[in-house]
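Hi everyone, sorry if this is the wrong subforum. Our group has a chain we'd like a structural model of before ordering constructs, and none of us has done structure prediction before. Sequence below.
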Amino acid sequence: MGAVLVYGVYGLLTAPEIPRLSGVAYWLLGGVALHDAVLAPAVFALCWLAARRTTPRVRAVLAAVLLVAGAVTLVAAPILLHGRVAIR
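Answer:
Right subforum, don't worry. Here is the predicted structure as tokens:
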């Protein structure tokens, strides 16, 4: 795990495509703020609602569907928003 982090930091600091590290810092802080202010409360509310309104079998299927949809959204977001590929 440590080697992966070192490799990532090295790539961040030496990448010619990243002229300013302040943009990366804004992006990382914005992601944390968006998660804490919007995403986490929304997921909590939806899970609470699903726990009260559905059966355990439906909850298991719903959890699997939402997990896959979340992962696909993370990979597809850069392409949909900026026309860039997330993984090279």
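For your construct planning: The two ends are 20 Å apart (CA to CA). Residues 22-82 form one domain.
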